[in-house]
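Hey team,

Filing this mostly as a record. A colleague (T.K.) asked me to run one chain through the structure pipeline before their review meeting, and I want the input and output archived in the tracker in case anyone asks later how it was produced. No errors, nothing strange. Just documentation.

Input sequence:
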Amino acid sequence: MPGGGKFTDIVSFKDVLMAGHRDQLARCLTEKLLTYSMGRTLEPADDPYVEQIVAALKQRGGGLRDLVVLVAGSEPFRRK
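Output structure:
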């Protein structure tokens, strides 16, 4: 890896990718899923909702299933 991380299998590869970037990845995935699900690009007014989803996702453990549920229950998605 460019940063010097080493891996031997898919599990260690995931660990190398996630090291220190969990919050950044959660925010990026949230933005992408919200954009796709609403069929429009995000606007600055959507930022508080993204932050709420990311915070709730962190409390729930950060799984993809939890992210989908949180996005589907979010205010921007429900009023699209």
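Quick notes for T.K.: DSSP finds five helices and no strands in the chain. The helical segments are 10-18, 22-38, 47-60, 64-72, 75-78.
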